[in-house]
């Protein structure tokens, strides 16, 4: 079977053509049928050639991403998905790229969209509760990591082969770094029928609160089989949302009425919280706390994470340094050659940063320097060389030093980092061979 070529698309300008089922992506994934499409991406079913595992592959057009100004959104989606490991969140397996496209290789949810299943008829109260418990478990996990989905709806909730719920599509998600000085988010987003009233007020909103409003809408739809706010006239629907005007179907139990009403409270300050949800009698019935292996991380705005208290790496962070999760090579950045390298050191972070600054000054006049707790940004006087250094604690005694550099007109004869800087740092680079020989 032919492989996907790393060349420009021969289709029309900006188009993302259908991928033939005869194509094998990078010799690893055999492409299958088209599952769905959006503004700048198409999702395909695929099969891992070596293992036979089914996966979903989201193919994103780089040209459309840059032209539409969605580069930051795509980067944020990758950064968020690669770090969220929960049984009820679609897993990002790896990210691949050619010159024209970025490919998200994701866990395949065989059961399809929850929307498709609910469109065939409403769920029983017990089944609604089961799916809602899984939804809240995942949302609670996201919020504890500083991630707010902002577009929760049945179309973005998938079902696996065991009919368990999986949240997908983090394209509109926000992270804590996007919060404004007033403590709120301000970007207008979401799907009209699921949007919270405070978003309509355009005064800023709490990401966690609007997610819980959407969760309330989802629960209503699961139980009733239709939307609580549904008008053909959009402005009429917004007026009803803003006032909180809706009715329950006659089959809704008193406990469920009370529970849903707590979600669809137009006042975000008195709206139900995650802790209140977990302890609610209706919710708790048959609920089993999901146990999974995950470190307590806070997700930062650039998609990186730091553990509470110390900046240490867990096993998944170490894996994420591999090329499969390196975002630097996925996007074309004109005029710069962006390169990335890591090395391990036994030195303290402050010492490493000082040494790199010191050696940088010996070969370049520093035009800009921005220091942070465990990193530094250095720019040469002529802006021809930019170096970003970040230090991550690996173990109690070892750190990983991540180097990102951009060189204009760089080449074999002009490798500032490789030929001038790195050789000066050999004494702080950890070499296990040397260590073992000296013991």
Automatic annotation (TrEMBL):
| GO MF annotations, alphabetized | ATP binding; protein serine/threonine kinase activity
- What PROSITE patterns does the annotation carry? NAF, PROTEIN_KINASE_ATP, PROTEIN_KINASE_DOM, PROTEIN_KINASE_ST
The record's keywords, sorted A to Z, are:
ATP-binding, Kinase, Manganese, Nucleotide-binding, Serine/threonine-protein kinase, Transferase
Q: Does the keyword Repressor apply?
A: no
Q: Which residues form the Protein kinase domain?
A: 29-283
* Residues binding ATP, per UniProt: 58
The organism's superkingdom is given as: Eukaryota
Q: What is its EC number?
A: 2.7.11.1
Q: Which residues form the NAF domain?
A: 308-332
* InterPro entries reported for this sequence: Kinase-like_dom_sf (IPR011009), NAF/FISL_domain (IPR018451), NAF_dom (IPR004041), Prot_kinase_dom (IPR000719), Protein_kinase_ATP_BS (IPR017441), Ser/Thr_kinase_AS (IPR008271)
Give GO BP annotations, semicolon-separated: signal transduction
Cofactor field: Mn(2+)
Q: Which family does it belong to?
A: Belongs to the protein kinase superfamily. CAMK Ser/Thr protein kinase family. SNF1 subfamily.
Report the protein name in the record: non-specific serine/threonine protein kinase
